[in-house]
């Protein structure tokens, strides 16, 4: 019996690169997207390009808090083979929330805020996994830096199991200034670091009140300037030989301790 072979032309191979977020290319389309209030994840502009539209895009992006990277033409050609005119951008699959508006709303609703600040966490799957734990464990908002954060793309959304569409994500240009504002608003700052002064199980830190949890980069942890603002530096006890945890696992452990304390006292 002759076996019918499939027509492989109908089933093109999957592209290795994720394309689940929409690309915008060309100077005018990117400027129009910004003017229309579209949330752009990132803009790539040709390094050294100087004209009125580039200046307008830069000004609109700064006002919207959208990160810009100045790159060589080869980088832009790798992003798209279309006529990009020295400009490529990606639409974000979510809208970022303004933290300054969110915090008063939480207090007005009678909630005890729990804010998670991610300092330069760049791995997309780590970011998605952290967001998933954050949603399960009662985090009210996730704060990321404008520059040096994982890209918000399809992999992040998939790994988060939809959590990134449920937990507000706030993009801040200066995490030091953001932590200072949160501290001035009465939130306790707890940093999770393997160099912490106190072990989590012995610290006796009350985390039932308004709280910020800070988690650091996969490479070098939390920035020293952010650590200086923390009210407590906690390390997670370990007995293995490796001596460090994946940041998404560490985030889940610390956030669970926060939830455990709040469930005991009835604050959640």
Helix content: 25-40%
Q: Which regions are unreliable across 5 or more consecutive residues at pLDDT < 50?
A: 1-20
* Alpha-beta content class: alpha/beta
CATH architecture of the largest domain: 3-Layer(aba) Sandwich
Radius of gyration (CA) equals 21 Å
Strand content: 15-25%
Instruction: State the shape.
Output: elongated
Number of DSSP helices?
10
Order of helices and strands: EHEHEHEHEHEHEHEEHEHEH
Query: How many structural domains are formed by the residues?
Result: 2
Oligomeric nature of the chains: single chain
CATH class value of the largest domain:
Alpha Beta
Instruction: Give the number of DSSP strands.
Output: 11
Keywords: Methyltransferase, Transferase
GO molecular function, one term: RNA methyltransferase activity
Pfam family, one: SpoU_methylase
Protein name: 23S rRNA (Guanosine(2251)-2'-O)-methyltransferase RlmB
Mind explaining what this structure looks like?
The protein is built from ten helices and eleven strands. It has 268 residues and is of the alpha/beta class.
How would you summarize the topology of this molecule?
Elements: E1 23-25, H1 27-35, E2 40-46, H2 52-64, E3 68-71, H3 73-79, E4 87-91, H4 99-108, E5 114-118, H5 124-136, E6 141-145, H6 154-159, E7 169-172, H7 175-184, E8 188-192, E9 198-199, H8 200-203, E10 211-215, H9 224-227, E11 232-235, H10 247-265
Parallel strand pairs: 2-3, 5-6, 5-10, 6-7, 8-10, 8-11, 9-11
Antiparallel strand pairs: 1-4, 2-4
Pfam families: SpoU_methylase, SpoU_sub_bind
Domain RNA 2-O ribose methyltransferase substrate binding: 23-97
Organism: Hymenobacter jeollabukensis
